[in-house]
Amino acid sequence: MSAPRLRLGVAGLGRAFTLMLPTLAHDPRIQLISATDPQPLACAQFERDFGVRCVDSVQALCAHPEVEAIYIATPHQLHVDHVEMAAAHGKHVMVEKPMALSLEDCTRMIEATQRAGTVLLVGHSHSFNAPILRAHQRIQSGEFGAVRMIQALNYTDFLYRPRRPEELDTAQGGGVIFSQAAHQLDIVRLFGGGLVTSVMAHTGAWDPTRPTEGAYSALLGFAGGAFASVSYSGYGHFDSDQWMNNIGELGQHKDQADYGAARRRLANAVNAEQEAALKAARNYGAPQWAGNTAAPTGLQHQHFGPLVVSCDRADLRPMPHGVWVDGDGASTLDALESPQIPRQEVIDELYNAVIHRHPVLHSGEWARATTAVSLAILKSAQSAQMVVPEFQVPPIR
């Protein structure tokens, strides 16, 4: 007997969906049943790609009798309502990061799925990546002793990719804290034991034409004594993928001739309306949509910038091709095979949770704790004070 397939509906066919598209299209454990999006061109493209019908609202998707689980990739501020809606219809949920914009909304989402007895998984975040999970597994084995210090940084062009106005408004979830810190904080919390006890941070908003945080740097303390330094810049100058063998965040080989491409594209938009149109023109199904559902080739594992985890007896460096272990007497590579399907680790966790009732690492409680640290970064930067984040939990074992 063949393994059952997870019958999935998709709420939101924007950027997050396109990043998951190769995974959803090629993982044999997934059966796409339906989708919804306010853009007719996106819905038409989905129907062509997958031979199924879209519905006209999230409510209709949640009520769809054949849908077993819903991937919620709608704008950040809508996550709480859509998770509650899905739970009310008895659907399992995978919701994109950031989970929500407030801890109160995170709690509402957790409680809604608990009442319904359904799975709540939050992702994708880069803590799903195979090299991160392999490094965590080896650290948990005890062979290197305790984790003592974590260094994580990333320099990208995030702030200069075409944005809608709300994506440049912190109050609506814009900027790098909500969209990018979730990746980095999930990773360092996993290695540090999850229980962040202190946050001291600075943020940067240096371009008045992009009026939101484009950078941050924070020092995190953990229960047990470990500490982590996390830094991120989305200002589009230095590209830290140079330190990752010129492998991009999505596992693709990068051409150095593309340096500055984001700023060059943005120069064609002279106001917010033109910028939003520039983004819309490249969305799924839109006239300049250049993607497809073909299985990608030549990829390495995804990453979120250079990372070093210092333990008693080794420093570990997750990389796109494996994990470097710099030990007492030797530096060795724990190599990983190249992925056949990107982000398959996300489906591993979702499928095993729904079909096999395995515990969820990237649970609502875990994501709420990451959101609490993100909010603590904002609060610490504004107050110039150390902040103790709420709702911290350790990772499941």
Quick summary of this structure?
With 397 residues, this protein is α/β, with parallel strands linked by helices. It contains twelve helices and 13 strands.
Computed CA radius of gyration, to the nearest angstrom: 20 Å
Spatial strand sequence of the major β-sheet = 7-8-9-6-10-11-12-13
CATH class of the largest domain: Alpha Beta
Question: How much of the polypeptide forms β-strand, as a percent range?
Answer: 15-25%
Number of domains: 2
Characterize the structure shown.
The chain has two domains: 6-126 and 341-372, Rossmann fold (3-Layer(aba) Sandwich), CATH 3.40.50.720; 127-293 and 297-337, Dihydrodipicolinate Reductase, domain 2, CATH 3.30.360. The chain has twelve helices and 13 strands. The chain has helices at 15-26, 40-50, 58-63, 79-88, 103-116, 130-140, 176-179, 181-192, 261-266, 272-281, 344-356, 364-383; strands at residues 6-11, 30-36, 69-72, 92-95, 120-122, 147-155, 196-204, 215-222, 227-233, 307-311, 314-319, 322-327, 331-335. The strands form two sheets. An eight-stranded mixed beta sheet has the order 7-8-9-6-10-11-12-13. The protein has a five-stranded parallel beta sheet with strand order 2-1-3-4-5, with helices on both faces. The longest helix has 20 residues, at 364-383.
